[in-house]
């Protein structure tokens, strides 16, 4: 049996002063194991660990809290219920402001989780099985994640904007046994047919045995007998008690697919104990959550931000977390601020792309609402430009809310570099300082560590932290090659970084072939593969370019064989094809049909030149005389209308 300690407050790990931060940071570097084991003591363990950490970055093999046993959901529910039973865990605000919101207490969320865990078990899901969650932003999506964790199933949430073929790839890669989905999805003024996408994906997969469908929009959908059942049917007669599965510390908690610089998306694997400890700790400290606060992160649960900072981190800290189904501009561009006022939101966490999109509407929609409840505002997903930083700070934060610019990745599981709200200093557009337990280093292209201030290079992390990636699902070599081989003995992030004269870190963006579109990662190779599916395309190259709202836009160059279609027709077909194969977020902003692509003598595409053209900036084009085919550069420049 578990021991309950009703008097224990989960706030004891909060850093309260700059001095605490300095001390804790120092301690976390000098004795990391002691540091993390003290944080871990807050949790309920079925069995304690034999060893806090064992690791090598060569294999790589990382193990935190080795041989400990626990269930993450017992640390949200059984651990917190004595003090939190009637506290609101989730506030859900629907897409349509005229419809009713939902408030779920910790007690109610526990019952819903147990009931759905029982339903999943009845449908044949067991410990270790993979379950895909392809759902809108509704409380049931969070319940689904927690129910998976309760029964020990490994969830893989797929953003419900991905296409059927992207979904099928993910189902096949993790060999998912079950899909949790909905009939449709309300987003802004759109009603998206979700179940139809699942049906199409399932034509190309063979692993899925059951599909549980939540009724959300009331769309007519096809239900295949024996395979598909309604959410309510699955819940019928199920008990509200469920004894949690006992998991090992390093058992898989979830897989989340993300784009990399090569080929198909990788399934980033996170495990149970380390992820639990780190998301809890980072949530509490970055946002400085107080017991009665209402916290809101606007991400979708399809991304890591939704996992760590809508669901797991806040719930492990006993917070009230707000989930919003809709989009920032529907039915009006003040929708975010209306919600802040309605629920008196205290911490608000969003992406720079949303800020820039709202900035376009001016300050009137912000000023219409009372934002005085806000104590902390946050940013995530991409570098925040100074203009957006100041607008956000001044008009949303009214100049007196700390702005936490949080740098992290799907692979890091939690926030790595960020101000701690009101504790460490704010500097516009700077993620600033590492959290305790995080040891960032800047290296040059040879892997030499660049010490001191005023240096710029590639961002690596030289010591393990609890929520770090363990492997890429089904392909450990890929994990090693992608993250641990570029610089020996270090985790390579793929980002460039600068340490300024004050010692603050500023993230400069990706240094690999990953484009960050509206805070979403897209691999250029992935988009190219989709373009190459077009029957007229011979070869393509995709690059990113600065985009006012999206941060980066996708620009594609394609060599085509067809002379009977106009360039316009081809360009449009290519855009639609990418949309169909990957999803709307990957659709190129521009497609340019070209006669050739600039190549080096060894046959490598010179992306630098293409980036210049896409950015409409031909200064410093560099030496093109060494190209195999310098003549195409003029053609490309002309084709882009830059001559
Ligand atoms: C970028 C999102 C600058 C970065 C949590 C990283 C950022 C990638 C920031 C990970 C930030 C994220 N400042 N860049 N505050 N946060 N990034 O996996 O390039 O979707 O490598 O995780 O987003 O994106 P991912």
> Helix/strand/pairing class, anyone?
alpha/beta
Reported for the largest beta sheet, the result is: 7 strands, mixed
- Enumerate the distinct ligands: 5'-O-[(S)-ethoxy(hydroxy)phosphoryl]adenosine
Helix content: 25-40%
Low-pLDDT regions: 1-10
Largest sheet, spatial ordering of strands: 5-4-17-16-18-19-20
Instruction: State the end-to-end distance.
Output: 75 Å
**Average residue pLDDT:** 95
General shape: globular
Strand content: 15-25%
- Rg over alpha carbons: 24 Å
Q: How many beta-strand segments?
A: 29
Number of helices: 19
Describe this structure in words.
- This protein is an alpha/beta fold.
- The protein has 19 helices and 29 strands.
- It has a seven-stranded mixed beta sheet, with helices on both faces. It has a five-stranded parallel beta sheet with strand order 7-6-8-11-12, with helices on both faces.
- Strand 19, helix 14 and strand 20 form a beta-alpha-beta unit.
- It is globular.
- The site of 5'-O-[(S)-ethoxy(hydroxy)phosphoryl]adenosine has 24 residues, from helix 10, strand 19, strand 20, strand 23 and strand 24.
Structure described in brief:
With 643 residues, this protein is of the alpha/beta class. Helix 10 links the parallel strand 16 and strand 17 (320-324). The chain binds 5'-O-[(S)-ethoxy(hydroxy)phosphoryl]adenosine (WTA).
Question: SSE layout and pairings?
Answer:
Blueprint: H1 18-30, H2 32-40, E1 51-56, E2 61-66, E3 69-70, H3 81-84, E4 88-93, E5 102-105, H4 106-122, E6 130-134, H5 139-151, E7 154-157, H6 164-174, E8 178-182, E9 184-187, E10 190-193, H7 194-202, E11 210-214, E12 228-230, H8 231-235, E13 247-248, E14 252-258, E15 266-271, H9 272-287, E16 294-297, H10 304-316, E17 320-324, H11 335-343, E18 347-350, H12 352-359, H13 364-367, E19 376-380, H14 386-396, E20 403-406, E21 440-443, E22 455-461, H15 476-484, E23 491-499, E24 505-510, E25 514-517, E26 520-523, H16 524-532, E27 537-547, E28 551-560, H17 567-581, E29 590-594, H18 607-614, H19 631-639
Parallel strand pairs: 4-17, 6-7, 6-8, 8-11, 11-12, 16-17, 16-18, 18-19, 19-20, 28-29
Antiparallel strand pairs: 1-2, 3-13, 4-5, 9-10, 14-15, 21-22, 22-23, 23-24, 25-26, 27-28
The chain binds 5'-O-[(S)-ethoxy(hydroxy)phosphoryl]adenosine.
